[in-house]
Design goal:
It contains 17 helices and 38 strands. By secondary structure, the chain is an alpha+beta fold.
Length: 676
């Protein structure tokens, strides 16, 4: 494959090893994930975390596998666990090389043996396969008599059957086990896990107590649990090369031969290669992100269509995140059919002009609609889809949803979302993307008229007008309202003292009557960049230049934009501590990678997409290459500390982080802003 991947050579200690994580996915919302030393540091880690109701109801089934190699009287353990006040075994000491090209691969060396451990998933199945290639270069005749040319490999699966948010103890669950010569099936809580190998299975049954997950401890979460070991697989390793596998699945895979495993492995390699080819690009920066981009596009079983996971490990599919991510994940990558399916999935559930903010984690729950911007991002995404595909037939199918959104926002819908007399949209609190609440406390109260919401509103009106014209419909209503918004926007939001936008304007009476007290939030936040970066904008060139300069001065970092300027008294320089501390910092200084996309679009736009501006933008975006070797290997994290060195936090792999970096790189750097 053409991508360079991540590679590490040399011994890592435990503390540094758990700071670098890997994740692979299966197109259903399920995944396998751990650290590069294969020591689980989160409740969310596991070799098989199955999405039992794709893409949700994610359940840890196979937590890890303990590998043990017996040579004569010596026992070598290449696994790693954390227990209270100790790390045991310390298998990372034998780890000589780790890479993720194309899948997580660990190379261990013991005496004159080299063990390659590769982990991959079967696309479209809740199935993980762990392959072991053992090169036993020892002497002896290799006749299996236990001489110096042979060794024994034992594989101890540690299983669990719990929601991936929580931990359990041995008293919380009981397993039923049904075994055969090469397979065992474990059942608990009406869920079955099959473990199948080409090594013989020996039934046992013991608990590993008090395993600890250090990342959860640092987050103030439950961090200690028990895992069950039902037995072990065993095989003799003779001189030469041995190929062993363990397959873990909610499906019945029997019989599964070594040749079948090789075919499944190559099948996934070919699938990823085809995704690279579909982009039509040969830039390694984009190609390195293709597997990450692919990981977020999933099937949603309840609607039989595609959706977008907002982030791994813990987010499900959210409307706002999906619509922001769609251009980068599906349009710049040439996955137009997936883009159309995703738009159709959310359009199907549009209610009173609102796109779902979040689909439910369980099949019997209703979607949440508590967002003011998801619907406006939906209109934007349809517009971008049309810009790339010119598919008028699909847009015609989406038209009723677009028209419903526009009219409901004009006439008023839920959560106080309505168009005011000045044409601007007003709304209740905690409906924008800065929506954290701690109990009843609104951390970033943005009730009223928010600058980016009304930038999105204008963009939606102009997009609707353009699409209406393309469908030979009357665009005059959208144009008329857009003119009103344009006349009101600068008057309402321009902060002449700071030469940028007020973040939010709130009329305390909130009834549209004249004479109400107006509060203007002068905090320097990144939301204003959307008033420059969107396809349709309202401000003068001088104002747009001033906004870009202000954002660059106060908010730009190498990994995204801060959510608050550093000189604001509310600024939080670190995202750390318990949930209250982290929620307080979430939108008060914490850096968000996805905002780099709008910044790059705005920066290149105000510089007329000059060669110099594009090269500067390229250098900024390629700065993420260093991050691709850190945090979540090969992907981009959700958030970072506001202060240097900008440590990554939150989800190790975030859809809109990956999507917006890719989109800006392809559209604004490579494409020079030609797609409008």
């Amino acid at each position: 494959m053409s991508r360079s991947g991540f590679s590490h050579r040399g011994v890592l200690d435990y503390e540094h090893g758990i700071q670098k994580e890997w994740i692979i996915t299966n197109g259903l919302g399920g995944y396998a994930a751990s650290t590069i030393i294969n020591a689980n540091s989160r409740t969310y880690h596991g070799l098989l975390v199955a999405a039992l109701n794709p893409p949700v109801d994610r359940t840890v089934l196979l937590s890890s596998i303990d590998e043990e190699i017996i040579v004569g009287e010596d026992i070598y353990r290449i696994s790693t666990h954390k227990y209270p006040n100790t790390v045991y075994p310390t298998g990372f000491e034998y780890l000589k090389h780790f890479s993720v090209d194309p899948f997580p691969t660990s190379i261990y060396r013991i005496e004159d043996m080299e063990i390659a451990r590769r982990v991959f998933m079967v696309y479209g199945q809740n199935t993980t396969i762990i392959k072991y290639e053992v090169n036993n270069g020892g002497g002896g005749d290799g006749d299996g008599d236990g001489g110096s040319g042979s060794a024994i490999l034992r594989l101890y699966p540690l299983v669990n059957m719990r929601n991936f948010h929580y931990t359990i103890k041995s008293d919380d669950i009981g397993f039923a086990q049904n075994t055969s010569e090469y397979e065992t099936t474990l059942t608990a809580n009406d869920v079955s896990l099959s473990l199948l190998s080409n090594a013989r299975y020996l039934k046992g049954g013991t608990w590993f107590y008090n395993l600890e997950y250090d990342t959860e401890r640092s987050r103030g979460q439950a961090y200690q649990e028990d895992n069950y070991n039902p037995g072990y697989f065993e095989i003799e390793l003779k001189k030469g090369m041995s190929n062993i596998f363990v397959a873990a699945s909610v499906n019945d895979l029997s019989p599964l031969e070594t040749s079948d495993v090789e075919k499944l492995y190559e099948q996934e390699v070919v699938r990823l290669r085809s995704l690279e080819e579909k982009t039509g690009l040969d830039d390694d920066f984009v190609l390195n992100l293709i597997p990450a981009a692919d990981s977020f596009i999933v099937n949603r079983a309840s609607i039989g269509s595609r959706s977008i996971i907002a982030g791994y490990h813990w987010f499900s599919d959210w409307g706002r995140d999906a619509m922001i991510s769609l251009p980068g994940l599906t349009l710049v990558t040439g996955r137009f059919d997936d883009g159309a399916q995703i738009l159709s999935s959310f359009a199907k559930y549009c209610k009173d002009g609102l796109i779902p903010n979040r689909f439910a984690d369980l099949s019997d729950q209703r979607p949440d609609y508590n967002t003011v911007d998801a619907s406006l991002w939906f209109v934007h995404a349809v517009g971008r889809y049309f810009a790339y595909t010119k598919d008028a037939n699909f847009v015609r199918k989406m038209w009723d949803t677009i028209d419903s959104i526009i009219h409901n926002y004009m006439n008023g819908t839920h959560f106080g979302i309505r168009m005011d007399a000045d044409g601007l949209i007003t709304h209740e609190g905690q409906l924008t993307w800065m929506d954290v609440k701690i109990g009843d406390f609104e951390v970033t109260p943005r009730r009223g008229k928010a600058c980016e919401i009304n930038a999105l509103w204008y963009n939606a009106l102009k997009t609707a007008s353009h699409l209406a014209d393309s469908l030979q419909k009357d665009p005059s209503l959208y144009e008329r309202v857009a003119d009103d918004v344009k006349q009101s926007y600068a008057t309402t939001f321009w902060n002449s003292d700071e030469k940028c936008l007020f973040d939010c304007v709130d009329n305390n009476a909130n009834d549209g009557n004249e004479g109400g007290i107006v509060n203007r939030d002068a905090a320097i936040r990144p939301n204003q960049i959307l008033a420059v970066s969107l396809p349709y904008t309202m401000l003068s060139r001088e104002m747009e230049l001033d906004i870009v300069k202000r954002v660059e001065r106060d908010l730009l970092t190498p990994v995204g934009l801060r959510t608050l300027s550093t000189d604001n008294p509310m600024y939080q320089n670190r995202y750390e501590g318990d949930m209250v501390a982290r929620d307080t910092a979430y939108h008060n200084g914490t850096v968000w990678a996805w905002l780099m996309g709008p910044y790059i679009s705005a920066y290149t736009k105000v510089n007329n997409h000059s060669k110099e501006s594009r090269e500067h933008a390229r250098a900024i975006l390629r700065g993420f290459e260093e991050h691709l070797q850190d945090g979540g290997i090969g992907t981009i994290s959700e958030i970072f500390d506001g202060d240097a060195p900008h440590r990554p936090h939150g989800c190790i792999s975030q859809a809109w982080s990956v999507a917006e970096v890719m989109r800006a790189y392809v559209e604004d750097v490579v494409g020079g802003g030609e797609i409008v």
